[in-house]
Amino acid sequence: LIPLTPLLDPSSPTYTSTSHALLSALRTSGFLYLTDYTSLIPPSTLSHVFNHSAHFFARPQSQKDALACRSSIANRGYMRPGREKVSRAMTAEGVAKEREEVGEDMKETYEIGREGQKGNPQPWPDTLDQTGVEFREMIQDFFLRCKELHIVVMRAIAVGLGLEKEFFDKMVDVGDNNLRLLHYPATGKGAFAKGRVRAGAHSDYGSVTFLFQDARGGLQVEKLEGGWMDVEPRNGTIVVNAGDSDFGTLVQRPHPLNKTPRRRTASSIIPFPII
Questions:
Q1: Count of alpha carbons within 13 Å of 65, Cβ hemisphere only?
Q2: d(Cα 202, Cα 55) in Å, to the nearest integer?
Q3: Which residue in 181, 173, 184, 159 sits closest to 258, CA to CA?
Q4: Structure confidence by residue, pLDDT tens digits, 30-50
Q5: CA-CA-CA-CA torsion for 114, 120, 126, 131, nearest 10 degrees?
Q6: Calpha distance 211→205 (Å, rounded)
Q7: In the Cβ-directed half-sphere of 154, how many Cα atoms lie within 13 Å?
Q8: Helices marked H in 161-271 — which ranges?
Q9: Total-model pTM
């Protein structure tokens, strides 16, 4: 458990020690729980984001499909269940074989990138109704809050590495981040046959990932000695894990989204800050 509060004030007497503790956690396990973040992301904000996410995924399929992601380069918009297969396979053939043998991922997502990037417009539901307008306003505000959180965490990593605090600023201040809203629909009997999971084991691209979970869980992480352990949801925490841009020192741990309750939906919100 790493508190965010000391990292918000570089003059805090525990700023440096907390920065080293954060880096140590990412070096040794690749995962940590971040606490005391409500000055940046209040509980009311997070609650509204989850509610808007749930409403979006409850929309008619035709409305969601009209906002579909059209380009893997842009990485913006809606992806329906079955479109994506997360895998540790290194080739398209390997992914196709795994999809055939095990099945596609059981999830749907909505991807958000920064505003104003030429050639990569964000498809928003704000033209559909007033709820869509409110959705856009809330998600854009949340995106900027997570961008600020990313800068704070990257400064702590820089201090832990013995670098100038602002070393990574020029790499992250534009906000080329990816925010994912995820929904894991209720499934039928036998959905998890043949080793099928909600999302296959993988590591994340980018610097670090922030995961906001609901109470239903399902995330697992590969243990150093082999096998898997649950990453239990903890109220008032953000799960942080190291991405593939490891700066030569952090640990990337493969993690699947396993069996959430079959007859209940589950949701998570994952900002992927990348540099």
A1: 5
A2: 28
A3: 184
A4: 889 999 999 999 999 999 999
A5: -50
A6: 14
A7: 27
A8: 169-172
A9: 0.83
